[in-house]
Amino acid sequence: MDNDIILETKNLRKEFGGLVAVDDVSIKVRKHTLHAIIGPNGAGKTTFFNLLSGNIEPTSGSVIYKGNDITNLPIHRTIHLGIGRSFQITNIFPNLTVFENVRLACQSLGKDNAKFWRRASSFEQYNQRTSDVLHRVGLEKRAAQLARTLPHGDQRKLELGMILAPDPEVLLLDEPTAGMASEQVPELIALIQEIQQSGDKTVMLVEHNMNVVMQVSDMITVMHQGKVLAEDTPAAITTNEDVQTAYLGGLYQLDM
Ligand SMILES: Nc1ncnc2c1ncn2[C@@H]1O[C@H](COP(=O)(O)OP(=O)(O)OP(=O)(O)O)[C@@H](O)[C@H]1O
Ligand SMILES: [Mg+2]
Fold first, then answer.
1. What's the CATH number for 1-82+169-256?
2. pLDDT tens-digit profile of 94-134?
3. Domain extents for the chain?
4. 22 Cβ inside 6 Å of ligand 1
5. What is the pTM assigned to this prediction?
6. Does ligand 1 come within 6 angstroms of the Cβ of 43?
7. 85-100 exposure pattern, b = at least 16 Cβ within 10 A, e = fewer
8. CB of 47 sitting under 6 A from ligand 1
9. How far apart are CA 81 and CA 133, in angstroms?
């Protein structure tokens, strides 16, 4: 086993009736990198993430995490192992405060739960961990506010906080900037980069904004109609002819 690879798929496939949403995808994600998945609408990016996180089961193929086959593990198990994910649609509890949202994520999830969080002193530890996470995502001043009253950009930060709460090793972020005002995007992206660079975390990112992708990614996998069209560094992807051709439908253009 290559110790440098944290997550790997082998011929991963998902069919929905006659539709092949993910078509025998084999990729390798290196530890501590920011690995982007791009591709036009319907390319299979979200379905691929759903397979990685255990939200859905593949038709065939396998998912290997740190050398172990996790293919058919349900999402609560993959979270426990250190795979955290966001959803394309905001996924917070609107009528709880910012603090309560993150504390719930600390309490209910996490790889250290069994051995650490269940101690008698855990209540204080949840609160401390929650404060740390809120500080990290820059929401400490919003702690007492109801989540639904946050501006959209702060809701996306809160989601990031909820993913960080159980201290995952891999973060699967599905369009974290979706629906954000463009002037808020750089701040969230900087935060994601900071999280990835400051420690032991690997980030997989689905993102439609090509400027962002090219700027932050170590590696890019391009999906098209369920298949991997190319996998390379940002510089090489930019000049890849297959990629250029696939995007010439005006879906989006790689002109930076
Ligand atoms: N539960 C489902 N049942 C049937 N078809 C599905 C299901 N989920 C996804 N699909 C189909 O699978 C294909 C891939 O969808 P997916 O959501 O993975 O694409 P995507 O790359 O995330 O697109 P987008 O950029 O729009 O988010 C699409 O044709 C979609 O309609
Ligand atoms: Mg999607």
1. 3.40.50.300
2. 999 999 999 988 887 554 555 554 555 677 888 999 999 99
3. 1-82+169-256, 92-165
4. no
5. 0.90
6. yes
7. bbbeebebeeeebbbb
8. yes
9. 19
